[in-house]
Amino acid sequence: MTKYIVVSGGVVSGIGKGVIASSTGLLLKTIGLKVSAIKIDPYMNIDAGTMRPTEHGEVYVLNDGGEVDLDLGNYERYLDITLSRDNNITTGKIYREVIEKERKGEYLGKTVQIVPHVTNAIQDWIQRVSKIPVDETGEEPDVCIVELGGTVGDIESAPFVEAMRQFQFRVGHKNFALIHVSLVPDMHGEQKTKPTQTTVHSLRGLGLLPDLIACRLLVREPLLDATKEKISMFCHVAAEQVFGVHDVSSVYHVPLLLQSQGIVEYLRKRLDLGSVNITEKMVQHGLSLEKRWRDMTSGQARLFDSVSIVLVGKYTDLKDSYMSVIKALEHSAFRVQRKLNLTWVESSDLEPETQESNPAKYHDAWRAVVGAGGILVPGGFGSRGTEGMLMAIKYAREQQIPFLGICLGFQLSVIEWARNVLNISGATSAEFDPSTEHPAIVFMPEISRTHMGGTMRLGLRPTVFEKDTAGCSKVRKLYGGAGKIWERHRHRYEVNPEWVEKLTASGLNFCGKDEKGERMQVLELPNHPFFVGLQAHPEFCTRPLNPSPPFLGFVAASSGRHVLVEQLAFQHANFKPPHPVEAMIDEADLRRDDLPPITQAAGPGDTA
């Protein structure tokens, strides 16, 4: 029987439920258990695809093309698992399923209501998805972490809270545990418990009793014993069921912080984990995982050398817009044993208009770019800020600064080359100017022009390296020398096929293409320390103990040539793809046309 751990939140949203849920799952993996995860988002959207990055953070893309909440990225990275779009439940998905059943007559003429029909649909969904294998064992998970998004007490989350109340009886007491995350404000050195008392009282009134209370402190000071005792007294739990999560130097220390407070021992007793059959192989795998994680986190504290990266983006107001990019850089910095110094530059601040309207901001932005050890231009949609990105790319290319372009950054690298090497001054993307006479980037022919949802090129897709790249391509070496690689995509524009010949003849090297050789997917400049662009989003497949190859090469090159040489040799000998073998298939075998369009994933939220 699968064990379920529900993670809910109170007082305010965005206080770290995802990290606590992921950390709990990681700790359970260290004792040999197989762990899956589900994220519940109470909003009405079918998925996160049509949301602005500055509205809800990064849109995370899965192997199956699902566009989901960024917390699923946390789950995949921490737990080293591969999830599907069904691991992200939204109100929109549940209501659609219930309404479709009603239209088919499956409720036999009954009045369809929130209780029991919607709540049953939620429970059925969780039970079905929790049993899907998510790791290399191919076996049913032992534990499923269910994160309930939002805040207990919100109107929109009420059906999900009620579903969880019913679910605890459906699966049984020994198979259901609840972790409630609450804010403990620090007021001039005094830790206040009243918000936690109030949210736990509200939760109990809804029929859910927390087994563990995670007290989130937004300061460096740990939870005091006196505070723990007070929460224990007023929230009707034992002191051992209250643990503190204060700010630490890195989120990768959170699992060790929870472990030090006895969360594994408590869950072992509470969920009778001793009754779960764990093979000796899984036990040893768990011990190895714990050791490697401890080595990684302890190594961070002893780092003296640093690497300076400048991210030139258009959603820098909300850092969560680039969550996976940040994690890929962090993981790469861990590997090369460097402290990451990441500087954010709003791309529009590099443009001449800002020089006139705000000279100080303009000069600060360029000072950061000029002082960078490496320049990164990530993905995005729309024309806003792209001229500034182009200027940063030109600087990186001409000044021999390590550069990595992702999705939009890849496309802009092509445009920059066309403008400044081929001297086609009007070269641009059809996305920015549909009527342009010089479209270096064009709309993909198979993509819908009328619908945003479910119309992009999405999910895990193969890239084939050119035959003559085996000995000379840095990117190929970073992928272990493989002739074919797989990364996740999210785009609806591509390099103009009619321009490829003249771009290549002028020296722009497209070393990776799709299986037909028609779609340009990786570019690399051979006579440059590191100038690489990918149409895919390799940041979505990074892992703390297995960094994304392009990001690793980029950070290594930004740290120094000798560091890059070391990592090229290491990767060539040791790289292992993070994807399940069954997911790495030819593009012709992908059958997404069989899925209802609305479930596929949506389009971009940025229009400016």
Structure characterization notes:
The chain has 608 residues and is of the alpha/beta class. The protein has 21 helices and 23 strands. The strands form five sheets. The chain has a nine-stranded mixed sheet, with helices on both faces. Strands 5-2-6-1-7-10-11 form a seven-stranded parallel sheet, sandwiched between helices. A three-stranded mixed sheet has the order 16-17-20, with helices on one face. The protein is globular. The two termini are 49 Å apart. The model is unreliable at 592-608 (pLDDT under 50).
Secondary-structure map with pairings?
Blueprint: E1 3-9, H1 17-29, E2 35-41, H2 53-56, E3 60-61, E4 67-68, H3 71-79, E5 88-90, H4 91-104, H5 114-130, E6 143-148, H6 158-171, E7 176-183, E8 186-187, E9 190-191, H7 194-205, E10 212-217, H8 225-234, E11 242-246, H9 254-260, H10 263-270, H11 280-300, E12 306-313, H12 323-335, E13 339-346, H13 352-357, H14 359-370, E14 374-377, H15 386-398, E15 403-406, H16 408-420, E16 428-429, E17 439-443, E18 457-465, H17 474-478, E19 484-491, E20 493-495, H18 500-505, E21 510-513, E22 520-524, E23 531-534, H19 549-559, H20 561-574, H21 597-600
Parallel strand pairs: 1-6, 1-7, 2-5, 2-6, 7-10, 10-11, 12-13, 12-14, 14-15, 15-23, 16-17
Antiparallel strand pairs: 3-4, 8-9, 17-20, 18-19, 18-21, 21-22, 22-23
- Span between N and C termini? 49 Å
Helix content: 25-40%
* Biggest sheet layout: 9 strands, mixed
Lateral arrangement of strands in the main beta sheet: 13-12-14-15-23-22-21-18-19
Shape: globular
* Average pLDDT taken over every residue: 92
Q: How many helical elements? A: 21
Q: How much of the sequence is in beta strands? A: 15-25%
Structural class: alpha/beta
Number of strands: 23
